[in-house]
Write a structure and sequence with these properties.
Structural class: mainly alpha
Number of domains: 2
CATH architecture of the largest domain: Orthogonal Bundle
CATH class of the largest domain: Mainly Alpha
Radius of gyration: 24 Å
Number of helices: 15
Strand order of the largest sheet: 1-2
Distance between the termini: 44 Å
Order of helices and strands: HHHHHHHHHHHHHEEHH
CATH topology of the largest domain: MetI-like fold
């Protein structure tokens, strides 16, 4: 009888906790989904309607139209500027993701797989940079970019963040739990250190690459402040910089702003769908290994 009562009490507690956690998840999800859904509905309304009534979830089919999306691809000056900034963001994101993943992987591989003096000190210094806000580093970084003559260039935007401390930390946490016997087996088979790194260890770290590809692409795609400082030519503006420029004291082009913002979600969503099979495994493994 005692066991039965304790099991009933335990089952009741589990049910209550499940209901509470589910309710919290629903509440948080609603808070996150509301602006996205409201923005999506607003993208089908004229800009004047949005300016007059603001964002809402009210479905008024009499005011909904596809003209905003048609305007994006109409071929006029605003459309061409939007599509050019979209292309610039795609290129910048691709370069940033590839450069960041390659550089951070090799750094994390060296820190996690080799024993050498000051290894822990070096890793601590990498982690310490995560505690410094970007706004503090922004001015010295900008001065360095000017001295290197990299203003108004893609590399001027990419290089300051190519050694991301969080990406290095994630790769290191993922690889530190991998057996070191793999390195010895590769050396016995005659593989070079570079071959071990790229042909043996790299395929094992694919989930970590997928996870970091998603997070890095999101960060680069949505980056506004640093590209706005480095780029000076309007033809090189990225999508966030261009959309931010639509809000000014002389007029607000909400027609292309809202529709363009919703359309800009597609590349990030596509990246997530491509790597989602590895994403959860990579995040969980990187969090618990080591």
């Amino acid at each position: 009888m005692a066991n039965t009562k304790s099991e009933q009490v335990g089952g009741t507690k589990t049910t209550v906790l499940t209901v509470i956690s589910t309710g919290l998840f629903v509440l948080v999800s609603s808070i996150i989904v509301f602006p996205v859904l409201a923005g999506f509905l607003a993208s089908f309304r004229p800009g004047q309607e949005l300016f007059r009534r603001g964002l809402s979830l009210n479905l008024d089919f009499s005011t909904m139209t596809l003209k905003n999306y048609q305007y994006i691809f109409s071929g006029n000056s605003d459309s061409l500027k939007y599509l050019n900034s979209f292309k610039n963001s795609l290129f910048l994101t691709f370069v940033t993701v590839v450069a960041t993943l390659v550089v951070c992987y090799f750094i994390a591989y060296g820190i996690s797989m080799y024993e050498f003096k000051l290894r822990n000190v070096l890793f601590f210094l990498v982690i310490a940079t995560m505690m410094v806000p970007f706004e503090i580093l922004m001015l010295p970084l900008y001065q360095e970019i000017i001295k290197l003559n990299l203003t108004d260039t893609t590399w001027g935007v990419v290089l300051p963040g190519v050694c991301g401390a969080s990406t290095i930390f994630f790769f290191r946490q993922y690889m530190i739990g991998l057996p070191k016997e793999l390195l010895e087996a590769g050396r016995i088979d005659g593989a070079s250190e570079y071959g071990i790194c790229t042909k043996i260890m790299l395929p094992i770290v694919k989930p970590a690459f997928a996870s970091m590809a998603i997070l890095t692409s999101m960060g680069s795609w949505n980056n506004l402040l640093w590209p706005m400082l480095v780029y000076r030519s309007q033809a090189k503006f990225t999508l966030p910089v261009y959309l931010n420029g639509l809000l000014n004291p002389y007029g607000n082009n909400y027609d292309i702003l809202i529709a363009g913002s919703m359309f800009s979600i597609i590349p990030v969503l596509a990246v997530f769908l491509c790597f989602q099979s590895y994403f959860i495994d990579g995040m969980v493994a990187g969090a618990v290994k080591g």
